[in-house]
Specification:
It is a single chain. The protein has helices spanning 13-17, 64-83, 103-113, 126-139, 165-179, 196-212, 229-238, 249-261, 285-291, 306-318, 326-347, 353-361, 410-414, and strands at residues 34-35, 41-42, 50-57, 91-98, 119-124, 142-146, 187-193, 215-221, 243-246, 268-270, 292-296, 350-351, 387-392, 400-407. The protein is α/β, with parallel strands linked by helices and 420 residues long. The protein has 2 domains: 13-163 and 303-361, 3-Layer(aba) Sandwich (Rossmann fold); 165-296 and 386-414, 3-Layer(aba) Sandwich (Rossmann fold), CATH 3.40.50. It has a 7-stranded mixed sheet with strand order 8-7-9-10-11-13-14, with helices on both faces. Strands 4-3-5-6 form a 4-stranded parallel sheet, sandwiched between helices. Strands 1-2-12 form a 3-stranded mixed sheet. Helix 2 packs across helix 11 and helix 3 runs parallel beside helix 4 (126-139).
């Protein structure tokens, strides 16, 4: 969130540091398919002995810690896959570029690596993927965003895993009314990033609030904003009884810390991108441990699931002393999903870009040993509508534990998800 993945020396410090603005001269397309000596049709990124996978990550921006975990977990997968013989008789190799959560750099990085890649198992950031959505579709490049905005739905080539942000927030508001005493007539706040991430999450909270007789008090911020004092004051003045949180971990820590300092003893419900276990080392830790909850489609790294427990052990062995956070599970699972698509495509004798996408989309109940199943067959729907409620825990691997098992609220089941 298996046993597969890139040559050990492939992701080097030099590769991680390579300027993301470097541009290739060729334009990526679906590519002319060729047939190898093994009878398997191939396309860009596939040779007789290697399959190259592009990784567009954030190693220096607001999601740097998440990007590092994602990338290292995918390297682990690639190493394991190669040790087991690779995929379709070919070694998996990663081509990593850091865009620093900058859309312009992401476009340049994609331009460079797309002609050399068969698929992209990691692409951080809704704004970045959105900027390249049309090109990804034209290139028929199977791409797994590490982002869950509904604007990314609707493309055969782009696979949003698990829930979307709006579904999580609908399930989160439902949780507040059932477990935290929020009732009709109450106001709840929503702090969110401008852009696709925040708008998608806000759509969900507003939908649920409308159905449950609640009022949403909105506060929109930029990803570069750090101090949430003004937003907390606005929430307090409005008399909110809870706050939905769809920002980055730094902003979430500021929000909770300032709110507690101002005497606000209320629950906070975060999108999956709003929390990092590193926050438990900040002054906001006591408040997070008491009143912060996270909605996520993925089982936490502390879950008593054999595949996750094995992943934790393998990751800690390969990267001793490194934090085990949700990025480890998300990165490994995404690599596994792409690996399974490649294996299916190999069985179909078609490792062209289109063949990989078709193989992936043929799966309606992929589970992979990491929790709940996902339906990849429908491009216009989230692959799941069930969210776990997890809670920060200092003693737990990954910094969270399951509070409530994954479930889809009645509101989430009936919600019409906007596409594109």
């Amino acid at each position: 969130m298996g046993k597969f993945g890139i040559r050990t020396g492939t992701i080097t410090l030099a590769a991680l540091a390579l300027a993301a603005t470097a541009c290739g001269s060729g334009k990526a397309t679906g590519g002319e398919a060729a047939t190898g000596v093994d009878g398997v049709k191939t396309g860009p990124g596939v040779t007789a002995d290697k399959i190259t996978l592009g990784i567009l990550t954030d190693l220096t921006g607001p999601y740097a810690s998440f990007g590092k975990s994602l990338t290292q977990a995918q390297q682990l997968y690639f190493d394991q896959a190669n040790a087991a013989g690779g995929v379709c008789g070919r070694k998996l190799e990663g081509l990593v570029r850091d865009h620093g959560y900058d859309a312009q750099k992401a476009v340049a990085a994609y331009t460079e690596i797309a002609p050399k890649s068969a698929a992209i198992p990691q692409f951080i950031g809704s704004p970045m993927v959105t900027a390249l959505k049309q090109r990804i579709e034209t290139d028929k490049m199977l791409t797994l965003p590490m982002a869950w905005a509904t604007s990314l739905l609707g493309s055969p080539s782009i696979q949003v895993t698990g829930t979307t942000y709006d579904i999580d927030m609908i399930n989160g508001v439902d949780f507040l009314t059932k477990e935290k005493g929020i009732k009709s007539g109450d106001k709840i706040g929503h702090l969110y990033f401008e852009g696709d991430y925040g708008q998608s999450a806000l759509n969900g909270s507003k939908y649920a609030a409308g159905k449950l007789g609640l009022t949403i008090v909105e506060q929109k911020i930029k990803a570069t904003d750090q101090d949430m004092s003004a937003q907390v004051s606005a929430f307090k003045d409005a008399g909110v009884k809870a706050i939905m949180v769809s920002v980055g971990p730094r902003q979430a820590a500021s929000l909770v810390g300032v709110a507690v300092a101002k005497g606000m003893d209320i629950p906070f419900v975060g999108s999956n991108s709003a929390y990092s276990p590193q926050l438990l080392g900040t002054p906001a830790a006591p408040a997070l441990l008491k009143n912060f909850f996270v909605m996520t489609a993925a089982a936490p790294m502390s879950a008593p699931i054999p595949s996750i427990q094995k992943l934790v052990t393998d990751y800690q062995t390969k990267y001793p002393g490194q934090a085990v956070d949700s990025g480890v599970g998300a990165g490994y699972a995404a690599a596994l999903i792409v690996g399974d698509a490649l294996r299916r495509a190999c069985q179909d004798k078609d490792l062209s870009r289109q063949g990989i996408v078709d193989a992936h989309r043929s799966q309606s109940a992929w589970e992979g040993g990491f929790g709940q199943p996902m339906d990849f067959s429908r491009i216009d729907q989230p692959s799941s509508r069930a969210s776990y409620v997890v809670k920060p825990d200092k003693s737990a691997v990954g910094g969270t534990v399951i509070l409530k098992e994954a479930a889809s609220s009645a509101l989430a089941k009936e919600y019409h998800v906007p596409v594109g």
